[in-house]
Amino acid sequence: MQKMLTIISNVLRGSASRNGAELVSEGARVVVSARTYADFTPQATFDIKKCDLHKLEEGPPLQAVLTREEGLQYYRTMQTMRRMELKADQLYKQKIIRGFCHLYDGQEACAVGIEAGINLSDHLITAYRAHGYTLTRGGTVREIMAELTGRRGGIAKGKGGSMHMYTKHFYGGNGIVGAQVPLGAGVALACKYLGKNELCVCLYGDGAANQGQIFETYNMASLWKLPCIFICENNKYGMGTSVERAAASTDYYKRGDFIPGLRLDGMDVLCVREATKFAAEHCRSGKGPILMELQTYRYHGHSMSDPGVSYRTREEIQEVRSKSDPISMLKDRMLSNNMASVEELKEIDVEVRKEIEDAAQFATTDPEPPLDDLCNHIFYNDHPMEVRGINPWSKLKSVS
Amino acid sequence: MAYLRSILRSGKNGVPAVLRREFHRTLPAAMQVTVRDAIKEAMDEELERDERVFLLGEEVALFEGAYKVTRGLWKKYGDKRIIDTPIAEIGFTGIAVGAAMAGLRPVVEYMSFNFSMQSVDHIINSAAKTYYMSGGLQPVSIVFRGPNGAAPGVAAQHAQCFAAWYGHVPGLKVVSPWSAEDAKGLLKSAIRDDNPVVFLENEIMYSVPFEMSEESQSKDFLIPIGKAKIERKGNHVTLVSHSHVVSRCMDAAAVLAKDGIECEVINLRTIRPMDMEAIETSVMKTKHLITVEGGWPQFGVGGEILARIMEGPGFGYLNAPAVRVTGVDIPMPYAKLLEENTLPQIKDIVFSVKKMLNV
Fold it and tell me: pLDDT tens across B33-70, in order?
């Protein structure tokens, strides 16, 4: 009987991934589902590390509840992000991606945890290490990769590249270090102005944390009680400069001074999620901005032109990979609590790999944007105009 | 309306004195309005028309504007729509651009455009380029306004003209009004425009009154961005100018008219996109071109106009090489005598016209 059910469930899982569940007979499906649910723990509670607090009486809870569905979803998204970035690395080395390419692998728990703590109707802005956020904010792997390769199917029609990707309620992708912070506070101002109970998550790195405009923004966000969650992704290095060499104070969560702050483990997706929920509650209750520092790590160098080993040791990178990898951490939690099976997770890996391959295929075969798109999208909602070309006889057309 | 006008025309005896005075006040088809008030009227009307429009800048609310341009607006619209900022240009410009990205329509005031240099990264990298970089996904509807260029006695750090700097950037519209009508119609267009507009006012012009036509008093009076205006028709030479220097050109034209030289004075109104067609049409008629501006000569507005004339149909019509009259290529000095000799005066324009025409 057991063997029979195993066969049925394998067949069903196989067919389910091909064409949904139509092939399943009602009785068998019920039996298999019952077996699936009986097999796995539907949810579990995990202890998470306490956050360091600044100007806060209490912080996020010390325990997080993770359901099986949530776990599988976080796993899939983080794995997709990881594979996507590694594929980008490959394409860059093949010179199919050009220019700047700042990869996010190692930091997946931040993007996924943050999104789990807010709604899609909230807003988010970050700097140039943005591929992960483009994904969590609704972009598809295809559109992201095709933008990296500069094709017409790219999320910005091939006109932006790695650092300039946008989706609904996601404002990029910003190339100028620190500029995204006042922009994010401005989005928060619009949230408050329009009264829709939305907030803005505004991300920056440990390098950007020393920018003057960030302090101007802290002041105004606090003065005007803007619903803004400032998040510093501290991956310990601003390009090639370690935090100790760049900052007189590396307590980035305290830098907001009059703004309450939290410092937490950015490699633990549950920690990030709980802290984000806590911060979102703070903002939505009208208390004004709040600051979160996520301690995280990037495996790659600053960008593809940086091997990443002249200012840190390979041992350090290896140590983080083996002891604190965010995907491994989640996987271990789920497996050891019987929330998923090794096969199930392997299958997700296979599906993810396929999705990335398809996307890469698209990204390398989709044609580049047509030349007559060159001068379009200068102005929005405007009549067509002429743009001067390279020589005086070259008059190019521009439409909105 | 016509009936009332006819009463007045019939003379003082036609109507009792008291009644007459009342009609006079409510009647005039045209009225005198200063540039400052025209700018304020434009903002007032647009604030009323669209809930998403709001103002921010230093001293715009309680202080009623460093140059009193926003007087009365905070009392009328309150804290939510008229926002006093701390002295943090790059911060509040970024905040304004972010608010525009999220769907609001901010009007950012710089106490003078000299301070916008702190914010230039946001004006160009966050505002001007974004619609293009996003492949048409993210528009930015925002106006950056404030006094630009020379003002009496303010010295080097407070007197720079930014028309050429901002005019250089694709993705920006750059407007430089002269008269009260210009200011009102163009600012309303700028606020209604869904793109980043740099609106260059001038402190010298704020208190200058102009006659505003009846048409311009309507709440939907708009002047299209990108169209120049011929302020004075003439056949002998084309003077192209913008902002406060247009006044100088008009004065110089009056002086030259006494010598039988008729200047055609073109008020550019918009620096980018520039109305080359108006300039070319005029040059084809007058066959002589002088650009007049307060900004520095090198890489200036005049330089651009001359290059385009060279490259376009107008060149074949010129009877003399086109020239530029500009501010002197130095930081603005303080002493009155030195300052006066740094900007184009009436005599400089007259001299240049006569030299070009060989008279």
Answer: 999 999 999 999 999 999 999 999 999 999 999 999 99
The verdict on B311 touching A (C-beta cutoff 8 Å) is yes
- Whether the CB-CB separation of B32 and B181 falls below 8 Å is answered with no
Which two structure tokens, joined as six digits, stand for A398? 């521009």
Supply B262's token pair: 């008729």
Residue A298, pLDDT > 80, answer yes
- Shortest Cα distance, chain A CAs vs residue B23, angstroms: 43
Domains of chain B plus CATH, in order, are 33-217 (3.40.50.970), 229-357 (3.40.50.920)
CA distance B74 to B79: 7
What b/e string do you get for A81-106 counting C-beta neighbours within 10 Å, with b at 16 or more? bbbbbebbbebbeeebbeeebbbbbb
Is B231 a catalytic site residue?
A: no
User: How many angstroms separate the CA of residue B260 from the nearest CA in chain A?
Assistant: 37
The pTM assigned to this predicted structure is 0.90
DSSP reduced 3-state for B290: strand
- How many other C-beta atoms can be found within 10 angstroms of the C-beta atom of residue A338? 12
Contact A220 B95 (CB under 8 A): yes
A135 and A141 Cβ atoms separated by less than 8 Å: yes
Q: Is the dihedral of CA A225, A231, A237, A238 positive or negative?
A: negative
Q: Coil, strand or helix: which one is A149?
A: coil
Q: Please state the length of chain B.
A: 359
Q: Which H or E element spans position A316? A: helix A314-324
Of the pLDDT bands very low, low, confident and very high (cuts 50, 70, 90), residue A345 is very high
- A199 contacts on B by Cβ (under 8 Å): none
Do the chains contact at B135 and A157, CB–CB below 8 Å?
yes
Packing angle, helices A68-93 and A141-148, rounded to 10: 20
Residue that is written with structure tokens 């001007």 in the block: B128
- Phi, psi of A241, deg, nearest 5: -110, 120
> Is the CB of residue A199 less than 8 Å from the CB of residue A284?
yes
Residue in this structure with the two tokens 């009609």, named with its chain if needed: B23
Q: Pick the residue of B79, B138, B193, B270 with the most A CBs within 10 A to test the interface with A by mutation.
A: B138
Separation of alpha carbons A55 and A234, rounded Å: 20
Contact assignment for B94 to A176 by CB distance below 8 Å? no
User: In whole angstroms, what is the distance from residue B185 CA to residue B223 CA?
Assistant: 5
The Cα B345–Cα B236 span in angstroms is: 20
From B192, B214, B78, select the one nearest B142 (Cα to Cα): B192
pLDDT of residue B14: 46
Helix %, strand %, coil % for chain A, to 5? 45, 15, 40
Domains of chain A as residue ranges with CATH: 43-369 (3.40.50.970), 372-399 (no CATH)
Q: Report d(CA A400, CA B270) in Å as an integer.
A: 20
CA-based max dimension of chain B: 70
CB B146 within 8 A of CB B110: yes
Reply yes or no on whether B64 is catalytic. no
Q: How far is C-alpha B189 from the chain's CA centre?
A: 12
Is the C-alpha dihedral spanning B291, B293, B298, B300 positive or negative?
negative
Q: How far is CA B188 from CA A147, A313, B43, B45, in A?
A: 37, 59, 7, 8
Give the list of residues 6+ apart from residue B216 with CB closer than 8 angstroms, or none.
B181, B184, B185
What pLDDT is recorded for position A10?
A: 55
Helices (H), B239-323: 245-257, 276-286, 301-311
Do the Cβ atoms of A227 and B102 come closer than 8 Å?
no
The region, left, alpha or beta by phi > 0 then psi within -120 to 50, assigned to residue A217 is alpha
Coil, strand or helix at A135:
helix
pLDDT tens, residue by residue, A11-30? 545 444 444 434 444 444 44
